[in-house]
């Protein structure tokens, strides 16, 4: 059904009766959420290298120009985040960068690492030492890589973006829907609390949006691992002239997501990219990770709103705003709805530690 689905043995099937109802959804079909949440994070772009060359992306740098954060730089940033009261260390980088960038591979080798995933494991350990819970977005991974990284991550994520074959992903190096769905499935099999999402305005149509949300729903129904789905609008930047989708389009897509997805999955919009105030009545209940100290390195032209602005958004809607951890409550060790073991010893130890960070985590859990 989806491009490259056969290559990755993706078996997700829909009927017209599944898709058609979503195409007629409007904001009138949903209710505003009774509360909003956000996560206070520090953003660490571990490397700006990526094997893909998506036409809308400003994050990646070409070979010879890509950066790689050193262990010292990582620790300094983590300490900055801890001092600012952050609970989440957001690690992000492009897909399999050391497979394309010789300099990145050589530097990792000099530091004693076989791969960027190996290095990510190390810096996640550093994050835990500094009192922050890692949430990593490392692109497409295999199940074995998720099984290893879950030892040191509270949660992880990758954007599905779309199940459609769009020109935005064209070129010799391109991501495919089959590969992305395989990654989301692998995270579920490895029991990783997971964030994913769709990207609106890169050439997909309404049918594609409905199919993308249904694919996410089906994988969650199998594995129970999706904690939030981001509905993100594309924005113009120095590399592309994609027009941001209209407010009407975003309102419909957000409402479609809320109707399609199970109640336990949060629907999120990034407040530095989307008009969150105008989407509150469409079913969003989360404003994502917001950093008080670092930029949004994936969308550097679009600064995070101040935390006070988030409170203003919630106040205007007449709902409470709560700070949350990067892993949702239902995946925590003492959750009455937890199905099986999600938290491994290192994360469990961080959440239960009798230190400042552990007390901060528990205060957020108890408060919210």
Overview of this structure, please?
- The protein has 11 helices and 9 strands.
- It is globular, with a radius of gyration of 19 Å.
- The protein has a single domain (5-363), classed as Aldolase class I (TIM Barrel, Alpha-Beta Barrel), CATH 3.20.20.70.
- Strands 1, 2, 3, 4, 5, 6, 7, 8 and 9 form a 9-stranded parallel β-sheet that branches.
- It is 35% helix and 14% strand.
- Helix 1 packs across helix 7 and helix 5 (143-149) crosses helix 6.
- It has 368 residues and is of the alpha/beta class.
- Helix 8 (247-260) links the parallel strand 6 (226-233) and strand 7.
- The protein has helices spanning 16-23, 71-83, 102-110, 116-129, 143-149, 177-189, 206-223, 247-260, 307-317, 345-352, 356-367, and strands at residues 36-47, 88-93, 133-137, 155-157, 194-200, 226-233, 266-268, 286-290, 321-324.
- It catalyses: 5-amino-5-(4-hydroxybenzyl)-6-(D-ribitylimino)-5,6-dihydrouracil + S-adenosyl-L-methionine = 7,8-didemethyl-8-hydroxy-5-deazariboflavin + 5'-deoxyadenosine + L-methionine + NH4(+) + H(+).
- Pathway: Cofactor biosynthesis; coenzyme F0 biosynthesis.
- This is 7,8-didemethyl-8-hydroxy-5-deazariboflavin synthase.
- It comes from Halogranum salarium B-1.
- Residues 36-272 form the Radical SAM core domain.
């Amino acid at each position: 059904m989806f491009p490259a689905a056969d290559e990755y043995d993706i078996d997700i099937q829909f009927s017209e009766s599944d898709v058609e109802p979503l195409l007629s959804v409007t904001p009138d079909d949903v209710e505003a959420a009774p509360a909003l949440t956000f996560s206070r994070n520090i953003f660490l772009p571990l490397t700006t290298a990526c094997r893909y060359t998506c036409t809308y992306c400003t994050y990646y740098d070409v070979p010879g120009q890509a950066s790689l954060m050193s262990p010292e730089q990582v620790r300094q940033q983590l300490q900055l985040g801890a001092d600012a009261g952050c609970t989440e260390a957001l690690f992000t980088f492009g897909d399999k960068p050391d497979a394309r960038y010789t300099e990145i591979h050589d530097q990792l080798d000099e530091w004693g690492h076989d791969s960027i995933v190996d290095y990510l494991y190390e810096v996640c350990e550093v994050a835990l030492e500094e009192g922050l819970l890692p949430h990593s977005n490392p692109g497409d991974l295999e199940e074995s890589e998720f099984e290893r990284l879950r030892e040191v991550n509270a949660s992880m994520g990758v954007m599905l973006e779309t199940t459609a074959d769009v020109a935005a992903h064209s070129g010799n190096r391109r991501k495919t829907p089959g590969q992305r769905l395989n990654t989301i499935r692998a995270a579920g099999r490895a029991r990783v609390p997971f964030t994913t999402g769709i990207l609106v305005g890169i050439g997909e149509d309404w049918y594609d949006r409905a199919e993308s949300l249904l694919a996410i729903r089906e994988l969650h129904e199998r594995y129970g691992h999706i904690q939030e789905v981001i509905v993100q609008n594309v924005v113009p930047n120095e590399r592309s002239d994609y027009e941001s989708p209209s407010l009407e389009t975003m309102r419909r897509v957000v409402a479609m997501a809320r109707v399609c997805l199970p109640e336990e999955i949060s629907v999120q919009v990034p407040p530095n990219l989307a008009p969150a105030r105008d989407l509150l009545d469409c079913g969003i209940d989360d404003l994502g990770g917001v950093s008080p100290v670092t930029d949004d390195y994936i969308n550097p032209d679009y600064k995070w709103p101040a935390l006070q602005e988030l409170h203003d958004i919630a106040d205007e809607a007449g709902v409470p705003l709560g700070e949350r951890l990067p892993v949702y409550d239902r995946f925590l060790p003492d959750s009455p709805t937890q199905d099986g073991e999600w938290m491994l010893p290192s994360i469990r130890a961080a959440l239960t530690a009798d230190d400042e960070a552990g007390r901060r985590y528990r205060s957020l859990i108890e408060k919210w």
